[in-house]
Amino acid sequence: MLFSWLRNRRRRTLLAEPFPVRWTTFLERNVGHYPRLPPTEQARLGNAIRVLVSEKRWRGRGGLFVTEEMRVTIAAQAALLLLGSERDFYPRVRDVIVFPTEFRTPVAGDDWEDDFLSETPSAGQAVDRGPVLLAWDAVLAEGREPHAGYNLVIHEFAHQLDFTHGITASVPDLGDRALETRWRYVMTVAFEDHRRAIRNNKADTFFTPHAADDEMEFFADATEAFYCRPADLKELHAEMYALLAAYYRVDPAAWFGTANDDEGNGFSVRL
Ligand SMILES: [Zn+2]
Question: How many angstroms separate the alpha carbon of residue 235 from the centre of ligand 1?
Fold first, then answer.
């Protein structure tokens, strides 16, 4: 209790300061969602960014020094998932570890610089009760291109919300019993449909092949679609859109206007 009192007092002090002007420049340059948000949501995003930048430990690997611009750019995309709710700020994530480019996944121990590395390089990973690992080049490219339909930071932080709140293990808090009753059915049917399509080598599925791996990947992928291809998701999976809107308490379709007409050029590998 004392800890949370101190933390809340520290947050109030932090948020009493004006939002740094140079940070707005970073957001305008690197976070394609930012200019699309209405002013009230921009302000809320700004507050969440400040808390995340201040409270997480930001670590560079592979020779990378994590600049203020990198912190703000990553925190902003992670904060999109916190925008509409009073949810805490990823309480179980202490470290955000940034690599210059794709990395082979380190394993726990030895401060995430272990000798044991995965075979396949990836651009991102979220560890349950551990860090989020990100490749800066993919963060920047996908942050600047929200229409591409993919967002590495959103994907990995959706995993962290899932780990913390048991979203795919049970049902998230939607503030509405009727919606909560629909959640499991709608998500399970969509996941099974997608899995079948991938198994049958169907081309051009709405969700990525990686989303067919398990429910956790499906939820992270659906979250990316919700934030980056909202009009398409709403059109193709209207009930899922409504459920995700109830969970995240935002309406990204209103930010983007009409259906996204430009397709992404492929996405980076994320775990
Ligand atoms: Zn994943």
Answer: 24
Q: Rounded to the nearest whole angstrom, what is the distance from the C-alpha of residue 10 to the centroid of ligand 1? A: 33
* Cα-to-centroid distance, 14 and ligand 1 (Å): 32
Instruction: Please name which of 176, 160, 179 lies closest in space to residue 168, comparing C-alpha atoms.
Output: 160
Identity of the residue numbered 54 = S
pLDDT tens-digit readout, 107-155: 655 555 555 566 678 999 999 999 999 999 999 999 999 888 899 999 9
Residue-range definition of the domain harbouring residue 89 = 2-147
Angle of CA points 8, 128, 10, to nearest 5°: 10
- Tell me whether residue 241 is in a domain: no
What's the 130 CA to ligand 1 centre distance in angstroms?
A: 14
Element containing residue 192 per DSSP (H, E): helix 177-199
Please give the residue that has the higher pLDDT: either 49 or 86. Answer: 49
- Number of domains the chain is built from: 1
CA 21 – ligand 1 centroid, Å: 33
Query: Residue length, the chain?
Result: 271
What is the Å distance from ligand 1's center to 271 Cα? 4
CATH number for 47: 1.10.472.150
User: Cα of 56 to ligand 1 centre, how many Å?
Assistant: 21
